[in-house]
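Attaching the record inline, Q. Sequence:
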Amino acid sequence: MRHLDSEVLATFVAVADAGGFTAAGAGMGKSQASVSITIARCEDQIGRKLFD
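Structure, as predicted:
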């Protein structure tokens, strides 16, 4: 089993709580692009799409 780092997990939770990448990024002080890249990294690690 692969382990996800804390940045990836925090970003996932932020997107789920905020309801979108842009809002999550604003709440985290990151750009939407940065959030998107982090979520893509997470999806690659687990081998499945997390958000539509």
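The mean pLDDT is 92. The CA atoms of residues 14 and 27 lie 8 Å apart.

More tomorrow.
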